Automatic annotation (TrEMBL):
InterPro entries: DDHD_dom, PA-PLA1, SAM, SAM/pointed_sf, WWE_dom, WWE_SEC23-DDH2
Residue ranges with Polar residues bias: 1-11
CDD domains according to UniProt: SAM_sec23ip-like
Boundaries of every DDHD domain copy: 469-673
Source organism (scientific name): Puma concolor (Mountain lion)
Similarity-based family: Belongs to the PA-PLA1 family.
SMART domains, per database record: DDHD, SAM
Full protein name: Phospholipase DDHD2 isoform X2
Region (Disordered): 1-24, 584-607
Annotated ranges, domain WWE: 30-112
GO CC annotations on file: COPII-coated ER to Golgi transport vesicle
Length: 684
């Protein structure tokens, strides 16, 4: 989501005057003596459990200053809520807790931090509690004011902190194994550094180098002019969680019991991916999945608008792996709000079991055959089952010849007029895997009256009623997507070039060349032409050096090969030419000259063709309207280390998109182009 206003994170210095809660008890001190003392500048942190270990992460400077302003405002902190992280998290100041806004996540502790000590293993600074930090600050102030050092303090956890001087302050952990009578903590073990304030501690960091943080960095480097002119705001990324609710059924535990212990990482990847595929192809779970995804998308959008009432930007969506297929199916089955009602009345609808609003009773009434509805109801025949009925089936149900012909003709006419030539759904599994017709296509069709376009979505998917989104996405980005494979397995041969999503204008299929789950889309639109996908530029411009080197060596080897073969060909012909009689000398000379010219012309032609292949640009390829006439398939450039062994990096490549600067830059570029904003400098 493109949000309002830019998000610039600058290190803000807090007010040097003491806050009412930190130094009020020292107001009667001699100000001349205390002139060397300066109150510490606090910074706010939150705690996350990472690998079963507490990790304290700093808020960015802007959020920390907002929290400090709210804390020092003099108002009661209880019930005070401060939005942070671009509004994705709320901090309840009185509780000192941080809550996720748009998704479920364990609440994390928040702390106003002033004093730190270095951790045991990772050398990261750990903040003391707020109460003990205040004790340390008071002791430090007295030491500075009176110039009396070597102060020793004991923390509530029986840790010893010694303030030797302003530059040397150490922390000793309590020694384990004291006798049963107990003992006084002593200065034993390796001392740890104690730090006052956040100076020289990086506070503008993020927990993970995720999509959002990468995008903020790229805004500074590639859209700096637009930001300075306040033409754009940042892009907000909000996750849609559908995976966790689905896996709360206990199937994961059952699957883990039968999983072999070897190649653990690969088996975990297989279980996680293949299980979702089985879920999505199950009639039981498929409806649950699409309902969960669509409802979450609508809920998050509604909540975002409630929290950002002035938002006027656009919304784009992105799906990774199976998530991209789910979004593809949902978008395929959306309806444009304009003229929906008229098209439903005037035209036969798209697919009987996917969005057909007319009931079987209404269909029979339309055919003036309402009296036979009770027969179908008794035999438990719905619209889908009726579409599978033959003349013999209807006869066995007691339907007379005339009505039988009407019903069969109506079904046949509907299929012909809507382009539905789809596989028959088998009652046992809900998915047909053997009777998929060869001529099945993904097409935009027009009804017999010529009114309106509608889509044949009869692509072998299980019978699902797809929910409607309450907004129209600008662009759909698919990362590492198996859409092409699924459509092919469902029996789809090609996508009509005129087809486009009913409510979404753009579609980008982005993948890493070694991603084992990714498939292309463009060959399904233009099946008779072989062409390469679009190469995504490196975010710093040009191709990666190893790719340019590889292409340069390929071109050089081709040139050497062509020149060498040409020279060898001429030498071989002169060596194998038979001698001619003297009286045929003139004729021989003419033939030799003609042959030489012919061979040189052929060689020249070959070189010219090869040169033209190397120099001539690839002509524009019509890949249809799925992405508004633009290219659809975009491939990332592999890193130099990945090119050594593509199998070794296959699994990693499927997860690379969220940390890929090249992917994020393409997403930002396409989103901002919808607003007429372009990169500061075009990438080559």
């Amino acid at each position: 989501m493109s949000s309002v206003g830019s998000h610039q994170e600058q290190l803000s210095q807090s007010d040097p005057s003491p806050s009412p809660n930190s130094c009020s008890s020292f107001e009667l001190l001699d100000m001349d003596a205390g002139s060397l003392y300066e109150p510490v500048s606090p910074h706010w942190f939150y705690c996350k459990i990472i690998d079963s270990k507490e990790t304290w992460i700093p808020f960015n400077s802007e959020d920390s200053q907002q929290l400090e302003d709210a804390y020092g405002s003099g108002k009661d902190c209880n019930g005070r809520v401060v939005p942070t992280d671009g509004g994705r998290y709320d901090v309840h100041l009185g509780e000192r807790m941080r809550y996720a806004v748009y998704w479920d996540e364990l609440a994390s502790e928040v702390r106003r931090c002033t004093w730190f000590y270095k951790g045991d293993k990772d050398n990261k600074y750990v903040p003391y509690s707020e109460s003990f930090s205040q004790v340390l600050e008071e002791t430090y102030m007295l030491a500075v004011t009176l110039d009396e050092w070597k102060k020793k303090l004991e923390s509530p956890n029986r840790e010893i902190i010694i303030l030797h001087n302003p530059k040397l302050m150490v922390h000793y952990q309590p020694v384990a194994g004291s006798d049963e009578w107990g003992s006084t903590p002593t200065e034993q073990g390796r001392p740890r550094t104690v730090k006052r304030g956040v100076e020289n501690i990086s506070v503008d960091i993020h927990c993970v180098n995720d999509f959002r943080s990468v995008s903020l960095n790229l805004l500074q480097t590639h859209f700096k002019k637009a930001q300075e002119n306040q033409q754009i705001g940042r892009v907000e990324f909000l996750p849609v969680n559908w995976h966790s609710p689905l896996h709360s059924t206990g199937v994961d535990v059952d699957l883990q019991r039968i999983t072999l212990p070897s190649i653990n990482r690969l088996r975990h990847f297989t279980n996680d991916t293949i299980l979702d595929v089985f879920f999505y192809n199950s009639p039981t779970y498929c409806q649950t999945i699409v309902d969960t995804v669509a409802s979450e998308m609508n809920r998050i959008y509604t909540l975002f608008l409630q929290r950002n009432p002035d938002f006027k930007g656009g919304v784009s969506i992105a799906g990774h792996s199976l998530g991209s297929l789910i979004l593809f199916d949902i978008l395929t089955n959306q309806k444009d709000s304009l003229g929906d009602i008229d098209s439903e009345k005037d035209a036969p609808n798209i697919v009987m079991d996917q969005g057909d609003t007319l009931t079987l009773e209404e269909d029979l009434e339309k055919l003036q055959l309402s009296e036979f509805f009770s027969i179908f109801e008794k035999e438990k025949v719905d619209k889908e089952a009726l579409a599978l009925c033959t003349d013999k089936d209807l006869q066995e149900m007691g339907i007379p010849l005339g009505p039988r012909k009407k019903i069969l003709n109506y079904i046949r006419t509907r299929k012909k007029s809507t382009g539905i030539n789809r596989p028959i759904l088998q009652p046992a599994s809900g998915v047909n895997i053997s009777n998929i017709p060869k001529e099945l296509e993904f097409c935009n069709k027009t009804d017999s009256t010529g009114n309106g376009d509608y889509l044949d979505v009869g692509i072998g998917q299980v019978s699902v009623k797809y929910p409607r989104l309450i907004y129209k996405p600008e662009i759909f980005f698919a990362f590492g997507s198996p859409i092409g494979m699924f459509l092919t397995v469902r029996g789809l041969k090609r996508i009509d070039p005129n087809y486009k999503f009913p409510t979404c204008k753009g579609f980008f299929n982005i993948y890493h060349p070694f991603d084992p789950v990714a498939y292309r889309i463009e060959p399904m639109v233009v099946p008779g032409v072989e062409f390469e996908p679009m190469l995504i530029p490196h975010h710093k411009g040009r191709k990666r050096m190893h790719l340019e080197l590889r292409e340069g060596l390929t071109r050089m080897s081709m040139d050497l090969k062509n020149n060498l073969l040409g020279s060898l060909r001429m030498a071989w012909k002169s060596f194998t030419r038979a001698p001619y009689p003297a009286l045929q000398a003139s004729e021989t000379a003419e033939e030799t000259e003609a042959e030489s010219e012919s061979s040189s012309e052929k060689l020249s032609d070959v070189n010219t063709e090869e040169a033209s292949v190397a120099v001539k640009e690839v002509p524009p390829i019509n890949v249809g309207m799925l992405n508004g006439g633009q290219r659809i398939d975009y491939v990332l450039q592999e890193k130099p280390i990945e090119s050594f062994n593509e199998y070794l990096f296959a699994l990693q490549s499927h997860l690379c998109y969220w940390e890929s600067e090249d992917t994020v830059l393409l997403v930002l570029k396409e989103i901002y182009q919808t607003q007429g904003i372009f990169l500061d400098q075009p990438l080559q």
